[in-house]
Amino acid sequence: MRNRLCGILIKDELFKTKGANKIEKTQFSKIANGIEEFFPSENKYVYSIPYYKEGNKVSPNRGKLYDKYCNLKNEIKKIYFQSNKKHNKDNEVFINEEDSINWLKHNIEPEIILHQLWAETAHYRNTKLINENAIHKYPALKKAIGHILIDMDFSHLFPSKDQYLLQKFDVFKNKLKTYFKGQLNLNVFEQNIIKKIILPAKLGNDDLATIQILPYLFKPVNIKIPKKTANEDNQKTIKYCMQKPSKLEQASAVIVNITNSNDIKTTHEQKVNRAFINNLTVQPYIAIVGNIEDASSIMNYYTVIDNIYFETPIKALDICFKSFHALNLNYPPEAEQVWWFIQGYFFEIANVHKKKFVTVQTLAKDLQ
């Protein structure tokens, strides 16, 4: 219902712009205040958290209203691009993909051109340039708007599926409540998380608890760890050994909780060092900053990709998953089955690699 409400309100605001397709940033807060006033049980900060800057830290507009606004703008641009393969803006004409790619390598604004070229080059980048390190190649991906570009690429790769997780999340959460009624031998941590899903202390706590419990729904399986060795000719070869991660290691590959925001980079460095020891790389993950045990604590959500932090609301899980596909990255081996479950259950994306995990298939069946 919230998504539908946001869609109606944003479409109404866009209609008022008479083709400009732009909503002033302050308007989101006004709409959110109106929602809270009309629906006293709703929290305005779920719908809009305004832009602010403190020192070098910049937090962009956030909330369900702004997310819906960005998604609708992307849809409008898709329609525009279909009828306008070439465009001219401020005397800049982009004739082919190479010119557009070159612009994207060296520019991050104006945003209207950035979004247009990003959409126009989506097919080219995701086919001919698929093996390139996009996160370092395109500076815009490192900025606060980077998650919007990831969203755009995912929409290109999987048309009509970009809202699947958000649309199905509440249903999944309710099914979990039924699922856990029949579960025995749960540890204290899992029991506490389930209580938060069933009886959240404040709005949104059940969403957070649902994301936290996800990695614990699957029994860890053996994974291949590469080991570099040298032969008689001193040539390096790679051999593999099998290793089973703990549940905690599996969970931390998906989501970490950090009480103090000053510890974000330290935590990431520790993950990088652990991965380096095992000849692995750190893949995208979610960082929750704040005291999850304190109901009054303000929580911040980040999608962390290669030491770049996209601050997003509960959409962090959504963006984290999409980044694997938009940036052509592998799921982390410690938590591969968790992401395969999200891929199949929420996004209904075919498993072209034919990888099968018994726990993934079992859970999906139990939640039907």
UniProtKB/TrEMBL annotation:
Protein name: Uncharacterized protein LOC112680592
Name of the encoding gene: LOC112680592
